[in-house]
Amino acid sequence: MVLIKVYRIRLITDHTLVKIAITAKISPDVSRTESEQTVLKRFRGTSGPHNFDRLVKLASDAMGFNDSSSMNQPRFAGDVLCVEIRGPRCPRLTLVDLPGLIPVNPGKAVQGNADDIRIVESITDKYIRDEMSVILPVVNSNVDFQDHGILEKARRVDPEGRRTFGVITKPDRIDAGGKSEADWFKLARQSDDAFFKFGKGCHVLVNRSNQKTQAGTSSAERDANEENFFRDEVWSEDSGENAGKTNNWHALYQTDQWGVRNLVPRLGTLLYKHTLDQIDSVRTDIETRLANYDAQLEHLGLGLLDPSKLASILSKRFLEISKTTSQAVLGTYRLDPSFFGIGEDEKSSRYLRSRIRDGNAAFDAQMKAKGHRSEYKVAPDEEPPDNFAWADFFHRFLKETVGTELPGNFDPERTTKLFHHYSKPWVELSREYLKLANRHCRDFLLLVVNRKLGKDFPDIATNF
């Protein structure tokens, strides 16, 4: 099965090289599993210009597109094959070769399943929406122009055609003199009544036929055949039913709108002008990114210093934390006005001693109200009444729990038991009081650590 993928081709000028060197790697799609992404990221391949097909096959194998044992083998992938071409005469340029869109026209058979269509549409939309890119829709003229969905996509993302340059192929495969040829010729000349407007112009190329490709026709022969097609005023004898007919495409011969030899300088000029148009946008983008990097560097702060200086600064900050904590415990609040400033939340745990005293007052009130068993009826600091009924219970308890003591005496341990019985609620009340005090202390520490370390040591403050 033939893999239809995305190629990102980066050309780099390298005067240290004598010959062209090609390297490739795979940028996996985010839809891949983590393990698949790890495997694909490890792929590295190298080749020369003459064995590039072998490099592509290796990449296809890595992505699982040439596995004949798989019945559910995909036809399309969101992975990107990143090809880097280095050489002494390579222009500094990045090209993205996208898969062709699958026609989905009413009354015609769909040439791909729903997943194929979705993947290809998504890949194409991702790249052509980039305002920095130049869109080069390549459309072959031997099919109905309505089958070329890329034209409608280009119109949608670039309605004024400011960054769209059309390339028409296979003009030698069309019926000469017919309406279809006339429509495509109008498109090539960008006539007023052309069915699409390429804001950056249009170009026409003649491809190798399948037979010539299989026969290994050289680039020089291809270029010569292409020039012959546009130079001749009538179709050649080997043009089948078109032989001898008037060649309307000959009208382009005196222009620069045909052939590979004219396409290269046209694209160079297009790229140069497009770059000039994008300078302001590029400058704004650079300034925005620099501002983001500056913000990140400021966030890193002291993280850029060497460990010994960091340790010294961190020690100084911890000393500040210790002093501020001592003031909070003592309730002085005067030696660190930046932390204990007026206008801060006075009810927060920042003012620790005040919060602890509030807790003490609440604990005192709780102890008076609930610090004794309900049957005693007497709070800890109240005098028992003269007719206190529990006095008889005390006497009876002491009498019924006599041990080894002499008559008329009693063991002090008995009063301890009575006290434990009386103060049983103290345990829960004390536990709640300690929880509240602990929460105030912890909240205070979070505040002081974040205030003193949050800017320059955010990881320590966050994970405290």
Automatic annotation (TrEMBL):
* Matching SMART domains: DYNc (SM00053)
Recorded GO cellular component terms are: membrane; microtubule; mitochondrion
Biological process (GO) annotations held by this record are: endocytosis; intracellular distribution of mitochondria; mitochondrial fission; peroxisome fission
**MF terms (GO), sorted A to Z:** GTP binding; GTPase activity; microtubule binding
Occurrences of domain Dynamin GTPase (ranges): 1-217
Superkingdom per UniProt: Eukaryota
Q: Which SUPFAM superfamilies match?
A: P-loop containing nucleoside triphosphate hydrolases
What is this protein called in UniProt? Dynamin GTPase domain-containing protein
